[in-house]
Every structure is written in C-alpha cells, then in structure tokens.
Amino acid sequence: MTLEARDVWFRYGPRDPWVVRGVSLAVAAGEVVGLHGPSGAGKSTLARLLAGMAAPSRGQVTVDGHPPRPNRRERRPNPVQLVFQHAELAVDPLWKVRATLAETGAPDEVIAALDPELVPPRLLDRFPHEISGGEAQRVTLARALLARPRFLVADEITANLDAITQAGLWHSLLAAVRAEGIGVLAISHDRPLLDAVADRVLDFADLSRGARAGTP
Ligand SMILES: Nc1ncnc2c1ncn2[C@@H]1O[C@H](COP(=O)(O)OP(=O)(O)OP(=O)(O)O)[C@@H](O)[C@H]1O
C-alpha cells in the first residue's frame, strides 16, 4: 500500500500564487518519511491535499490508486488521517475525552484498553480545558489511530511542546505505527527532530519542481 502524490499543484485562488508546485512523493506502508521545510513553504497545504481535505488544482493524490476519502457506504473512515499542531482546535471543547475518542466508532472497551502511555485512563472523563497541550495532542493522535488508518500525516504535531513531552509523544506514536504497519509523513521545520524519528527525510524545496520551472 502506498500514499502517493503525483505532480501535485495547488493554489488557493485562480489569481493566487502556486503554493504547491509539482510535488511528487510516495510513502509506503510502515515507512516513516520526514518532510522538512521552512514556515510558509506550503507544508500544511500539502498535508491537507494528502489527507483529501482539499483537491489538487492539478495532479493526483492516491492511496493504492484511489483518492483518500472516507467510504461512507461501508462506514470506513479515511485511510489517511491528519493530525496537526493545534490539538485544541481539533477537539470539541464541550466533549469529554472519552466522547472525542468514541467519535471514531471505537467501542468503550477498546478506548479503555488504549496504551496508557498514549492516553492515561485518568484523562478519559476530563474536558479539553482540563488537560495539558501535550495531553490534548495525545488524544488527537489516539483518535487518529482508533480510525485504523493506513497512513498518518503528522503536521508539526509536537511544535508547541517542550523537548521531554515531544520525545515521549513521538515514542508512543512510533511504537503504535510500527506495530500496525502504518505509513507516516512527519512534517516539520525541525530538521534534527525529523532525523531522529524518520527513516528518510525529504526537503519541501527539492520537491517543488515548479519553484524552478515557474508554472505548470
Ligand atoms: N486558506 C488559505 N487561503 C489563502 N492562502 C492560504 C490559505 N492557507 C494558507 N495560505 C497561504 O499558503 C502559503 C503556505 O501556507 P502553509 O500553511 O501551507 O505553509 P506551511 O509550510 O505549513 O507553514 P507553517 O510551517 O508556518 O505552518 C502561505 O503563503 C499562506 O499564507
């Protein structure tokens, strides 16, 4: 199974500049690929394209030949799950952690049996304002994993966290994805972090063929 972008171009409006310029990349099942680039380069835009949350202006994003999107008829969630930097914006402030996790359709016993290093049981009956930023990010990661994705796009997921919390969260995440054979695209402006967690690291500027060639 492969998550693939083939000559993907994207701009927000017909008169706007190209943000993603001819990007091609592939992430195989079980592989952790880093994507490095400076702020504003277009990494989050590419993340949304890879998760099917926006459609390329040109080119294709596929998971084994199909566009990434949920299969509503068969009640299967998107095989590509996106987790981003601001966990607090990704959860409903009025839902306790248990309800946020149950949103995936996971039964109570599966939620209760989550790796306690990822989501300690004591967090389950708290509201988002009663947990720390690092804990909230663990909840959004657990929710993405409960959706049983084939691929995870992790966009600056530890950018807000201190080094120790960051290391603990990546430790839990890598254990989970290695156990399940989930492919990961880890996006960050922090090159040493990517060198530590990824099997290989791509540079966003190198992928942007159009940055040299102009327009498609
Ligand atoms: N909804 C939008 N409408 C118009 N332009 C946008 C929109 N979202 C992002 N952009 C622009 O697209 C460009 C790339 O933004 P993007 O968020 O993808 O970069 P990034 O590499 O993820 O940056 P950062 O690391 O700072 O989050 C920026 O110039 C940004 O202003």
From TrEMBL:
Keywords: ATP-binding, Nucleotide-binding, Transport. Residues 57-78 are annotated as: Disordered. Transmembrane segments: none annotated. GO terms for biological process: transmembrane transport. InterPro entries: AAA+_ATPase, ABC_transp_ATP-bind, ABC_transporter-like_ATP-bd, ABC_transporter-like_CS, P-loop_NTPase. Residues 3-215 form the ABC transporter domain. GO terms for molecular function: ATP binding; ATP hydrolysis activity. Belongs to the ABC transporter superfamily. This is Peptide ABC transporter. It comes from Saccharothrix coeruleofusca.
